[in-house]
Amino acid sequence: HTNITAESMKSLNIPKGVRRVLFRTLNTDRGLMWKAAGDMSYVGFTEDGAQWLVDNTDIKLVGD
To answer: Which segments of 1-64 does DSSP mark as H helices, in order?
Structure first.
C-alpha cells in the first residue's frame, strides 16, 4: 500500500546472485498503467529504497 523503502527491501532478504525481480504492487490492481500521467497514487521506490537495492543486491532489472 506504500512505496518501496530501504526498510521494506531489507525485510525481503533477497539472496546474492538474484539479477531480476518483479514486485507485485497495487499498481496492477488499480490499473494505473492505463491512466493518464500524474496519478499520485502510483506505488514506486523511494530514493532510499532504490539506493539500498543498488548497494546491497546484484539486481539489474526491476519490474512491477
So the answer is: 6-11, 26-30, 47-56
